[in-house]
Fold this sequence. Notes:
9 helices; globular; 8-stranded antiparallel β-sheet; Jelly Rolls; 2 domains; alpha+beta; 41% helix; Arc Repressor Mutant, subunit A
Amino acid sequence: MSSRNSGDIWAVSPRPSDHSRFAWDRAIFDTARRGYTDVVEGKIRSQHHLVMVTLSGGARRHQFKTDCGHRYDGPDRAGCASFLPAGCERRLRLEGVAWEWASIALRPDLLPGDDDGRPLLCDVPTFSNVQDPFLFGLFAELKRIHSQNGRLDLTYCDTMVAALVQYLSRRYGGAKDEANPGKLPAWRLRRITDYVEAHLDEEIRISTLASLVGLSEGHLHRAFKLTCGQTLLQFINERRIHRAMELLARSSMPITTLAHEVGFSSPSYFARVFRAHTGVGPAEYRRSLRDGQAHRT
């Protein structure tokens, strides 16, 4: 038997009732029930790949965002399935929730590899609140068997987990791009761009992006340039300036404050990069927007 990794976070308040767990070498199966609760808030992060299914009930509103850029805001119903890659943090808020759920946490280091030797599920992006009858049926059956005597047969568990991994990989994984060797496949590019968009107000390290998609920094630099025609730094600065233009258009935030809001620690460097992208400085850009509005009125 095993327990969750010491680096895991499962800080959700108030805690659910009737929680039970069965753990073995390859995975952890959890189930819990929650009576009607007005508001539930917290965050989840696991060193395992986490698959979650709502077995019954649901939530009037389920809001969350992950640190890899994925967001959801809507209802949660029975049959909804979600996937959270290992190491990705999910911050959540539930309103009007009464449900029963189950989850399976899969150890990445014990997953089989594909034809190229990559661990399966490494190319499955975060997904949420997807109606998936296969996952619902598998988790509901594990819950039914587990509720009979509080445990599961290990051979049965390993067989079901093998089926689960293959299904997730084939149903939600990214296909290899044989026509564009050396370029980033769509899933890696999406994971990078989602992360950058979600962290424009912070320092973004290339080492973090490389770790996020399972590549060395050098390999990522080359593949990103080949795929997008620009370096990672150029792309990040481009997205920061685009966000700055949006803020200049809709707020009266001081330029110094705005620079920090889009990830520049130096306002003077921000002004130089902004001018290089737009041909004008940030203050002049804001004045031109206001002058244009004045002419229209």
